[in-house]
Amino acid sequence: MFPSVKVEGLDQTNVQLTLVQRALSNIYEMLGQSYISTAGNNVWTGTNTFKPPPLINAGNTSSTTFMPMGALSKQTSVAGVGNLADLTDDTLFTYTLPASCLDTNNQGIVIEAFGSFAANGNNKTVKLWFGTSLVFSSGVLTNNNVGWNARLMLNRTGASAQIGSGFGMAGSTPFPVPVPLVGTEVTTGAIVLKVTGASPTTGAANDVVGHGMSVFFVN
Asked: What is the 8-class DSSP label of residue 124?
């Protein structure tokens, strides 16, 4: 219980509230968190880690809640990152998912990647990978001087089990949607996510160019 403090010209309730706020602020600082309460809004400054993740109301009066989620990685190259002069799948962008990031069933990741195809009729292929598992492939395409976009969605179903699929488009040509992959990556270890490009027949460099990849976490 905070003592009553009487200050000339100030309301006693406001003074007591100020004392409470200062005490709470000291507590949060001792916990390694800086907390500010302003007009009903909660603001944390600095680096703060919450375990378990907090639930957030979807709107001011909604009874529906959601858990935090968002971008894990955002990579962009205006000049572009192209495949090498070979016939293999070459990495355009990559991100390593930290160990135990997917620690609960139904958590998932979304990968969005985009780029361009060279101005020629060579065979070209774009693929999205989850660890060593190929989740999505554009198949062999010959599109000339067009942009491409590919998206992968994958959820954890067990400690070493996932299911996911993808889709995309190059110019006006849609990529075939594959039967969902049943993955076997061990989620307690780090998992490499990547988008690759290839010139599988000609082996010409920069037939497939990547301009960006983002990875999103779904809680």
From this structure: B
Q: How far is CA 26 from CA 20, 23, 117, 140, in A?
A: 10, 5, 57, 62
- Residue 63, amino acid: S
Q: What's the confidence (pLDDT) of residue 53?
A: 66
- Report in angstroms the alpha-carbon separations of 97 from 19, 101, 113, 161, 212: 44, 7, 16, 15, 17
Q: Does residue 33 share a domain with residue 112?
A: no
Over residues 200-208, mean pLDDT? 98
Confidence of residue 37 (pLDDT cuts 50, 70, 90): very low
pLDDT-based confidence at residue 67 (cuts at 50, 70, 90): confident
Domain count, the chain: 2
With cut-offs at 50, 70 and 90, classify the pLDDT of residue 34. very low
Q: What CA–CA distance (Å, rounded) separates 153 from 165?
A: 6
Q: Is 116 helix (H, G, I), strand (E, B) or coil?
A: strand
User: Domain limits at 207?
Assistant: 70-218
Nearest to 122 by CA among 137, 103, 142: 142
Helix-, strand-, coil-residue percentages of the chain, each rounded to 5: 10, 45, 45
Query: In angstroms, rounded to a whole number, what is the distance separating the alpha carbons of residues 205 and 91?
Result: 13
- DSSP code string of 193-211: EEEEEE-TTT--TTSEEEE
- Domain membership flag for residue 21: yes
pLDDT, averaged across the chain: 84
